[in-house]
Amino acid sequence: MAAERGARRLLSTSSFWLYCLLLLGRRAPGAAAARSGSAPQSPGASIRTFTPFYFLVEPVDTLSVRGSSVILNCSAYSEPSPKIEWKKDGTFLNLVSDDRRQLLPDGSLFISNVVHSKHNKPDEGYYQCVATVESLGTIVSRTAKLTVAGLPRFTSQPEPSSVYAGNSAILNCEVNADLVPFVRWEQNRQPLLLDDRVIKLPSGTLVISNATEGDSGLYRCVVESGGPPKYSDEAELKVLPDPEVTSHLVFLKQPSPLVRVIGQDVVLPCVASGLPTPAIKWMKNEEALDTESSERLVLLSGGSLEISDVTEDDAGTYFCIADNGNETIEAQAELTVQAQPEFLKQPTNIYAHESMDIIFECEVTGKPTPTVKWVKNGDMVIPSDYFKIVKEHNLQVLGLVKSDEGFYQCIAENDVGNAQAGAQLIILEHDVAIPTLPPTSLTSATTDHLAPATTGPLPSAPRDVVASLVSTRFIKLTWRTPASDPHGDNLTYSVFYTKEGIARERVENTSRPGEMQVTIQNLMPATVYIFRVMAQNKHGSGESSAPLRVETQPEVQLPGPAPNIRAYAVSPTSITVMWETPLSGNGEIQNYKLYYMEKGTDKEQDVDVSSHSYTINGLKKYTEYSFRVVAYNKHGPGVSTQDVAVRTLSDVPSAAPQNLSLEVRNSKSIMIHWQPPAPATQNGQITGYKIRYRKASRKSDVTETLVSGTQLSQLIEGLDRGTEYNFRVAALTINGTGPATDWLSAETFESDLDETRVPEVPSSLHVRPLVTSIVVSWTPPENQNIVVRGYAIGYGIGSPHAQTIKVDYKQRYYTIENLDPSSHYVITLKAFNNVGEGIPLYESAVTRPHTDTSEVDLFVINAPYTPVPDPTPMMPPVGVQASILSHDTIRITWADNSLPKHQKITDSRYYTVRWKTNIPANTKYKNANATTLSYLVTGLKPNTLYEFSVMVTKGRRSSTWSMTAHGTTFELVPTSPPKDVTVVSKEGKPKTIIVNWQPPSEANGKITGYIIYYSTDVNAEIHDWVIEPVVGNRLTHQIQELTLDTPYYFKIQARNSKGMGPMSEAVQFRTPKASGSGGKGSRLPDLGSDYKPPMSGSNSPHGSPTSPLDSNMLLVIIVSVGVITIVVVVIIAVFCTRRTTSHQKKKRAACKSVNGSHKYKGNSKDVKPPDLWIHHERLELKPIDKSPDPNPIMTDTPIPRNSQDITPVDNSLDSNIHQRRNSYRGHESEDSMSTLAGRRGMRPKMMMPFDSQPPQQSVRNTPSTDTMPASSSQTCCTDHQDPEGATSSSYLASSQEEDSGQSLPTAHVRPSHPLKSFAVPAIPPPGPPTYDPALPSTPLLSQQALNHHIHSVKTASIGTLGRSRPPMPVVVPSAPEVQETTRMLEDSESSYEPDELTKEMAHLEGLMKDLNAITTA
Questions:
Q1: Is the distance from CB of 512 to CB of 521 less than 8 angstroms?
Q2: Beta strand 169-171 with 605-609: parallel, antiparallel or unpaired?
Q3: Partner of 1283 for a Cys bridge, out of 105, 256, 483, 1324, CB 3.0 to 4.6 A?
Q4: Of 340, 337, 284, whose CA–CA distance to 315 is shortest?
Q5: DSSP of 814-855, one letter per residue?
Q6: Alpha helices in 221-371 (DSSP H)
Q7: Whole-structure pTM over 0.70, yes or no?
Q8: CA 551, 554, 560 angle in degrees (round to 5)?
Q9: Are 750 and 785 in contact (CB under 8 A)?
Q10: Which CB contacts under 8 angstroms, 24+ apart, belong to 1210-1215?
């Protein structure tokens, strides 16, 4: 029944096609005309037109099953109608007596009841439709393959399996490929409906994704191929509940390499299983595929990828990636896309005459590349002398004859399919002109036949046709003009020729009118050819000449190329070449000549050889040579063989490495550099280098190390300091080690030296002039801590820049040779290292005259200038000096010896000044011209060493450059902020952070300190930020006791001796959270004046718990503050009453009593009066006996906001206040220093006495050299110079000269401990005072005291918390005058009595103990 259904289906299909073809047949003439077209006809009626003849339908590849019916469609168009026949596997079918196969009316082939068995397959094969029109020709269709599906065979069957709910499962069912379309599945023996979740892969495999309980059951696959259904084994699929545990990812089905044809669909299978359920994504050639937005790419159920309508761009490697969040697996497969043959250029119809040459063009494409064959009238064209395949696919027909007419078809075929295209050839009579057609189908030999003929007399036969030159493969013919046209200027000629006994004749035309000779080439040797010549004029071709019979010369039987030539290297200097006897040649081989040549040269050498092999000796090692052989017989040399190339064997290098040099890096390492041996001496591939080194004192103890062949340097480490070592290097090939270099010595440094800067000037230079030479000797720089790698000696007549010689750093003398006698030479010596050259040292010397032969040593120092006899060059300027004016300006002055004594310039000479920095060494010179004896160089970099030299020019004459002068510009405030500011939390201490930074790129001088600003409000005024000073050039700093879980903003300023630079950008950092807050280390917040005490148990805004103060505690604190205040006043009063009668001594004594910062003579040196401060902005108290802060460098100094914050006692006290406020910088504006508490009603703070030990840094003020005016408003505490200068490095000192107008942003100074609610005035450490006369300044108080008035201040105590109370006087200590420091040291004994001081100290300590006892209770 199934077979009958298939047959009916096929028959109905064929009926439909037959009906369509009948409709097409009625319209065929029009279609044919449109497709083929007819050639334009000439006026003559004898021209035949091309006949449309082509296939309307061609058979296609077909798959059938046994017992069914098949129709192979075919229909051709022609007038008259063609006869259709069929071929199977190249043989015509006899359909008359065949009862199963019959020809349908439209030409299609109908096969009923297809027969197919294991041993009998009569219907399967390749079918071709053949259409023939009598007297016109034959065409063949493309070849179609009929495949009959075999009996069902299962190569794999479904197996029982289980799957977790939500996961994917596969059931295999693989049959022979031609039966896959007939596979279907059953579940529990019921047809299985496929959907988006349950799919069947092209291989037949069933994929179930997102499995559910309903997917459980028995599965089997069924094959229905026309006969009874074939069932596979049944397999049970179990769906298990989700175990909610993870499992490894595995591929159930991976993609495999596939080949598809353009236009087909393809499915790349990929199914993975695992828990959690994996997600599948695809990549192609490392690019992710977007399956959601693409219309052609679809992600099927389970993860397989379907590509519709495949194109050539789809080819590539595809990756299937499964990922479930825990792990990722991937698989890959290659998709190859093939293309059926397509015609880029089809053959075109051709008109031609007999004897002409024609070419049918055919250009095809496809993948794989198609092969091309030609068919003429249905028969294969076999290539021959007259039918040739040219340019791979084109068909060339030589010497046309009438029988060549017909239809020619180009058939292209590859693994995917085949295609055909055809054209018609019509051969016209000679008296019929060829109609105009595109000439691309004709060769150059036929182009003269394109012009149509006209009526008129034709020329007679050419006369005296002779073969003027006969060779083996060509013949040259000449003739005279026809008798009918003696001049023959407008005649062209055609030479027809053919082999004797061959009917096919070829033609060759002359190249231009009037030419009466032609050369016929590509002939065969010793062959007879028949030639005849015809003349043509504008009316047509004339008579033919009588045939001329000519035989080509027999080819000389020279030997052919010797076959099987081969060469191999025997040793590094010899190669053996072998060959065999040539196959051609009728004469005995007499000898051979072997030619050889080194590759890369053009000089070929040869050697005579009588045998079939030869060994050439004396060749270069590891060098490529080419060889060829020529055989000789009695006729001479034969054909040369192709070149064969071979390289001689490698050997050990025959020379040592080149340019070995040593560079001492430090006290324990030396760098070795070398170059490979010369290429001609390497004798092979350099595989490595062997380094051998030893101590110079122990020559037997040698150490060896090997490096790779590409390495040309090696650092030898672990050496002993201050030791001389010997080094040598040898090159290695695979054959062994070559010769080594000579031993080269170097000595490690005694200590690790500095090579971050250039060496200093050599300590001495001596010269000893002789007649033609000068002996130069020197000593190294005094600073032995800078690396010196050598010395550069410059010398020349009048200028040291003419010649330069470099010598080793160990050398201490050098003889300059080849000098002129009686000449004045200037000599310069510079030490250099890898950074650059140092400052030069100059000497001059006059060589002795020829007559002086004495050997007395002569040291010439600053010898007067001796004019050179030749007046042509000018003398260089002398006495060049550099005067530094500012940070960017230097004035250069000089003298000119060629001017009169008054040094007035009266001519047109001018001077060229050049300058550059010494670092880096390759800096280019800058030039400027001047017409005076000085020049102001501006635009220089601050704090930079420059060298200057001058040259004079007058007309066309110029001098050499003068000796150089050096100058370093002044420093300038930094013009860029610190870089790379980072903030990190300190491990284990959440309240401590570490700030790191890098120096500013434009430091403009030595950095002497930094200031760190920080705040919790990035938009706050800068004077409201807290500051942290950092002394010196440290690049890290710790800040302690910050509030937890709070964002802070940090900025950094750098300073040098000239002042402060710009601030860096704010960097945010949030302190970490902590499990609990509170405790001893928490900071109390700054509360405003409107603050109300919180209820019991409430916390402060920052999270620090505040215990409520009862009235008793408040009373105790108030009393304590009052007692301390009284103590401070009493002590100061006692000290002041002890002043000497001298007014100056009283001032010094007061300074000492407050500061205690100077050494004392005798027993008083250990007595350090305490600093007693009251600061109204802190609530904490601190005992005086010891400092809880182990790091005194982090002590900070709060600075009053302005004069209104301090209640003045008298003019002297007012002066003290001004001095104290300006202790951070020199002259500042009134508002330049402030604290947070002094602004906007912030609660005042109280400061208690601090420990008496001096801090490690001091606050430096601007030095002053002016005498202080003696006025009642002065105190002894004027500005003072930091006693240790730049060493103690005051971090806020500034130059009045340049920065007096600047203002330091004011800020809080954060205490480093919760009890340090006050700070120590900056006290300079002991040391002699230093002065800087270059920086004059105006006395501080003389500038500021006039502008201040006496103000009253409202202050708050602990008990009132905002209520006003009478002002409290505050005594502010200040520094002593600089001018009087020395006298203070001398008179310190007379200022104080040790016993009195001791009593006061004991009394104060007793008060403090009482206070501690009260607060503890």
A1: no
A2: unpaired
A3: 1324
A4: 337
A5: EEE-SPPTT-EEEEEEEEE-SS-B---EEEEEEPPPTT----
A6: none
A7: no
A8: 150
A9: no
A10: 1211/1272, 1211/1273, 1212/1272, 1212/1273, 1212/1274, 1212/1275, 1213/1369, 1213/1371, 1213/1372, 1214/1273, 1214/1345, 1214/1348, 1214/1350, 1215/1273, 1215/1274, 1215/1275, 1215/1277, 1215/1341, 1215/1345, 1215/1374
Q: Map tokens 């930091």 to a residue.
A: 1282
Do 865 and 876 contact (CB within 8 A), yes or no?
A: no
Burial call 1029-1041: b when 16+ CB within 10 Å, e when fewer: bbbbeeeebebbb
Cβ-based burial of 216 (10 A; exposed 0-12, middle 13-18, buried ≥19): middle
Question: What's the farthest any 2 CA atoms get from each other in the chain?
Answer: 160
**Structure-token pair, residue 966:** 């050096």
Q: Which two tokens stand for residue 1297?
A: 């000269």
3-state secondary structure of 1023: helix
Categorise residue 32: left if φ over 0, alpha if ψ from -120 to 50, beta otherwise: alpha
Closest by CA to 123, choosing from 195, 59, 192, 67, is 67
Sheet holding 206-208, edge to edge: 169-171, 206-208, 198-200
| Pairing assessment for the beta strands 989-998 and 713-716 based on DSSP bridges | unpaired
Low-confidence ranges of the chain (pLDDT < 70): 1-46, 151, 226-227, 436-454, 583-587, 852-872, 921, 1074-1112, 1137-1396, 1414-1417
Of 1375, 1249, 1260, nearest in space to 1319 by CA = 1249
Q: Are 273 and 252 in contact (CB under 8 A)?
A: yes
DSSP 11-79: HHHHHHHHHHHHHHHHHHHHHHHHHT--PPPPSSTTPPPPPPEEEEE----EEEETT--EEE--EEEES
- pLDDT > 90 in the chain, percent: 27
Q: How far is 539 from 1411, CA to CA, in rounded Å?
A: 145
User: Which pair of tokens denotes residue 210?
Assistant: 């997102």
Distance CA 691, CA 1058 (A): 54
Which pLDDT value is given to residue 195?
Answer: 83
Tokens, residue 506: 């070829």
Q: How far apart are CA 327 and CA 462, in angstroms?
A: 94
Buried b (16+ CB within 10 A) or exposed e, 961-984: bbbbbbbebbbbbbeebbeebebe
